[in-house]
Amino acid sequence: MTVERTRVAIVGAGPAGLLLSHLLAAAGVESIVVDARSRQEIETTIRAGILEQGTVEVLDGIEGSRARTVGHRHDGIELRFAGEGHRIDFPSLVGRSVWLYPQHEVLKDLIAARLAAGQDLRFSASVTAVHDVDSEPRVVGTDSDGAPFEIRCDFVVGADGSRSVVRPAVAGDRGNGAFREYPFAWFGVLCEAAPSSDELIYSNAPDGFALISQRSETVQRMYFQCDPSTDPEALSEAEIWDALQRRVPGTHLTEGPIFQRDVLRFRSFVAGGLRRGRAALVGDAAHTVPPTGAKGMNLAIADVLLLGDALRRLLVEHDERGIDAYAETALRRIWKAQHFSWWMTSMLHAVPGADAFDRQRQLGELRGVIESEAGQRFLAEAYTGWPLPSSF
Ligand code: PHB
């Protein structure tokens, strides 16, 4: 068993863990980042792609980040319902935009930058438990060769996603949190085709929801609402295209070979605690949102800005006020994002068992948003991102 010491042990090399290691290094605080996955797995797992303007500004501070150069700026989205499209124009409403730049590209940039800066970053190293978070934390697991390790540290951070192994030590089991399950999921595809739209289309159709997103001139990302028990392999390509075409009435989608398909489950979750003693949670380890509001990675970045500053104050200035306020401050934004993600989800999906009242009420809600500048601005503010705590 190897026993090592560092100041901050970060479990998880996703956007949250990697950004935190960058912020800590800038403050002169040493850390070790461990992740159970291989570098290849992290860099190829397909995830969502919308970055808030504030997230892009944070990434601009990282050497070699391509979010602004390779990513595409989007100045609006379209809400489509009752056979008509309605554009929400972000710059005129809130003076901000979003960028379409997939999460695995963000991860390639962050991993390259952290390795170039000499970060201790360990892939294929699985943490099995976290001990003594109330005194001197210890992180134990097995490294990429299967050898046991122990990392002793001043602070441990769970940035290890929705199946976090750090969470039980901070918040107890999953049942302690606030949880909402939805009676639908998204069937997601990547296909080889030209774009069918310049901007994202969020469509509420009688058969159910569809989202038309993009990746490049030759690859597109699209989703349609399905039953959570759907087997992604059970549908033929023709059936998939039929489902997509029917759900964006008014647009003929350019079809092409589908080379990747997946079913995304919908959950809302906030852990029962975000900090205990010398341990804290960030990102999906702390909360899950359904993808309709495009908030997942952005919320993780906001947590990390807050926690990074709190840890700098704790470990460099011996000032505990930031870490003591971390959970309460982070939760304010987390619950706003929870509400926004739940709201977009409930407003846009066909709810199984909905009657005529439910259906007409939903269309009334959508009209209330698009026919009111205040309604559009509420959506645009949330989608492009509320102000972030200033970084350091
Ligand atoms: C995506 O492009 O994968 C995407 C975009 C917006 C969302 C969810 C997913 O709300």
From TrEMBL:
Keywords: FAD, Flavoprotein. SUPFAM superfamilies: FAD-linked reductases, C-terminal domain, FAD/NAD(P)-binding domain. Gene3D superfamilies: D-Amino Acid Oxidase, subunit A, domain 2, FAD/NAD(P)-binding domain. It holds the Pfam family FAD_binding_3. Residues 5-340 form the FAD-binding domain. InterPro entries: FAD-bd, FAD/NAD-bd_sf, RIFMO-like. This is 4-hydroxybenzoate 3-monooxygenase. It comes from Leucobacter alluvii.
